[in-house]
Amino acid sequence: MPQADYHIHTAWCGHADGTMEEYVEQAIALGLPEMGFSPHLPLEIPIEEKVCLTLEEMDAFLEEFHRLRKAYAAVIPLRLGGEADFAPGTENEIERLKERYGLEYLIGSIHILGDWAFDHPKYIDGFAARPIDRIYSDYFGLVADAAKTGLFDLIGHLDLPKKFGHRPTNGCLPYAERALAAMAAGGVAVEINTAGRDKPVGEFYPSRDILEACQRAGVKLTFGSDSHAPGQVGRYFDEAADLARSAGYTRTLRLNPEREAVDLSGS
Length: 267
Ligand code: ZN
Ligand code: FE
Ligand code: FE
Ligand code: ZN
What we know:
This protein has helices at residues 20-30, 55-71, 91-101, 132-148, 173-186, 208-217, 237-246, and strands at residues 35-37, 78-85, 105-109, 112-113, 116-117, 154-155, 189-193, 221-224, 251-253, 261-263. It is α/β, with parallel strands linked by helices.
């Protein structure tokens, strides 16, 4: 059986296509054991275009989620998550959103350094304006901070600054180590985010060396397609499972209420 997909957006985010039901149907067609929606939560971020749901949209999103959860209860378990932009000082706001909407899990993501949305193609010039090593050390410093808040079940796209192909001279690992230790200590999982394969970098997040280091550090593992269209649900998951196994993982974390660890080879 394939893996559960916990990183899924929908048209509600404003920059993705497809109704929630279309994503669910795709997950069923692939035989996924469960799936979770992870809308970009309504938080203030320095981007002009629409990325996050508004508070009003959250209400409508929730209503539709609960309708689908009921309708598909006998077919596939649906989980209610959210992707939160972490920045120091946003902890209380994120916690409030989680409680208010009854979110069952949170993906902590860093898309912004200072006021620079570094993963947005429009702001790619920012890479030329800063030393690459500082970008990675600032970035993984924030990942470590996020892991220490105790708010997040997993970190999204763990080595995101590589998205357009920018890499530090000696690889990411030296910068990632402290973040991985914080994740292991806080029980914060890593996801194999398969969306990276379709970005300029052409590979999953995180890279193999970081995934292996996660495994050695005892960091738990989930899978996410970061879908922004229904056809992307579960993309490259067979390959992702092979990568996980070759990195030494034998189990994957279910974001069900029991937070079960299940066999990677399926259950
Ligand atoms: Zn998005
Ligand atoms: Fe993200
Ligand atoms: Fe996402
Ligand atoms: Zn994302």
